[in-house]
Design goal:
The protein is mostly beta strands. The chain has one domain: Neuraminidase (6 Propeller), CATH 2.120.10. It has one helix at residues 18-34, and strands at residues 3-4, 44-52, 61-68, 74-80, 91-97, 108-111, 117-127, 130-139, 160-166, 174-175, 203-205, 210-216, 220-226, 233-234, 247-253, 261-266, 275-281, 292-298, 305-308, 314-319, 331-336, 346-349, 366-375, 378-385, 389-396. The strands form six sheets. A five-stranded antiparallel sheet has the order 1-11-12-13-14, with no helix packed on it. The chain has a four-stranded antiparallel sheet with strand order 2-25-24-23, with no helix packed on it. A hairpin with a 4-residue loop joins strand 11 (203-205) and strand 12. The longest helix is centred in the first third of the chain and has 17 residues, at 18-34.
């Protein structure tokens, strides 16, 4: 069966008088306040800060995702840390734009933390005029951790997956009931996959069915399958005889064969510090080739974004530096057009370390990118900066 990606085809003379000088200075400052941040590289433009919080606890602002419904409309969601000393947990917030990213709405809460629960991740998906947000829930308390304090310090276990749906381009959201094969850690029966997590964009097949990339306990990777977006079934995991232990998998369509799926994931840092792993399926994720290192797709123990655009070009955005002092601090992107070799890596983002976050980690990070195509070869890209800001820019690869 054929596959579709669901993506959519944006030198003055020196002043003499002090008053003139002051006027020019004031005008310059005003322009800087409203102008977008400088582009990081050719193809990158309109860099904006959606939201910043230098007081947040936990591990700060992390794991953002973005969906664009047009060249002017997009919504971003992310996790925001809440408790000191805890990572991979917090609450989920979102913001939207209606003017192409020049301005973003004041953040709203998509999933609130409570005295019982926190949230691990959020992943967005668009089907027609509907948007869906998939969020992994985790308990506040966990007496199984070895430190003995009774608290959940690492966002695990994931004990529920909650979905919300929007019919107004991500401005408001409502609960959406689903049946997902997640194992309940509070029982002794096997209800499904342990610590089921989503980090990549689902795809819709040409027949209307849906596949969603997952990773779970033991670095098990594969897809969930659904015919109606309500009931999801796990298909077999990707074989991993070499223990590459892929993580945060991305799912896309082969540029060479519309009937073939490609899964791309970060690799085990102990196995490879430079390459992602890939696997392919020619039957909608019912079976997969073994994970294999791909030297063309960089991975530095961090999330790798990978997609196929509407013209069949591959786009990957990832951290690539092998310098421990630059860990997750520089994002580059690469493009491969159909029938051609991969292009050279280009700079995407390398911002300053401007916030000593309470978590004590992530200073200067530019990492965890996600993107969505709003016109042929043109993307909105979101990423986390410094664990204190959510940033968005446009990326144009249409001339490659």
């Amino acid at each position: 069966m054929a596959l579709v990606t669901g993506q959519r085809p944006s030198g003055a003379p020196r002043p003499i008088y002090l008053t003139t000088f002051l006027t020019l200075v004031a005008a310059l400052l005003a322009a800087l306040l409203v102008a977008p941040e400088s582009a990081s590289a050719a193809g990158v433009s309109d860099v904006r800060t959606v939201y910043t919080n230098q007081e947040t606890e936990g591990d700060g602002l992390r794991v953002p995702d973005i969906i664009s419904t047009s060249s002017n409309n997009a919504v971003v969601a992310w996790r925001e840390g809440t408790l000191p000393g805890r990572v991979d947990e917090g609450y989920i917030r979102y913001s939207y734009t209606t003017d192409g990213g020049a301005k973003w709405s004041h953040p709203k809460v998509l999933a609130q933390e409570t005295s019982e629960y926190l949230w691990h991740y959020v992943t967005l998906y668009q089907v027609g005029d509907e948007l869906f947000a998939y969020m992994g829930r985790t308990p506040v308390l966990d007496d199984s951790e070895t430190d003995g304090d009774g608290n959940n310090d690492n966002g695990l276990p994931i004990n529920d997956i909650v979905v919300k749906r929007s019919t107004d381009q991500g401005h408001t959201w409502q609960d959406y009931a689903v049946d997902i094969p997640l194992d309940d850690p509070a029982t002794t029966t096997d209800e499904g996959l342990g610590n089921l997590a989503f980090a990549g964009r689902p795809l819709q097949l040409a027949n209307g069915d849906h596949v969603m990339p997952y990773w779970a306990s033991g670095r098990e990777n594969g897809v969930l399958y659904s015919t109606d977006l309500k009931k999801w079934v796990a298909r077999p995991a990707i074989p991993d005889p070499n223990k590459y232990m892929g993580g945060e998998p991305q799912l896309t369509v082969s540029q060479d064969d519309p009937n073939k799926l490609i899964m791309v994931a970060r690799s085990n840092y102990a196995v490879s510090k430079v390459s992602a792993v890939t696997a392919t399926s020619d039957n909608g994720g019912q079976s997969w080739t073994d994970w294999a290192l791909d030297s063309n797709v960089p991975s530095n123990d961090s999330k790798v974004f990978f997609t196929t655009d509407s013209a069949g070009r591959y786009l990957t955005i990832a951290n690539t530096s092998l310098d421990a002092s630059a860990y997750r601090k520089v994002l580059n992107y690469k493009v491969k057009s159909p029938g051609k070799a991969w292009g050279a890596a280009k700079l995407f983002a390398d911002g300053p370390a401007d916030d000593p976050t309470p978590a004590g980690t992530g200073a200067g990070w530019d990492t965890y990118p996600m993107a969505d195509e709003y016109a042929p070869g043109k993307f909105f890209v979101v990423w986390e900066h410094d664990t204190s800001a959510i940033k968005v820019s446009r990326l144009d690869i249409s001339d490659t």
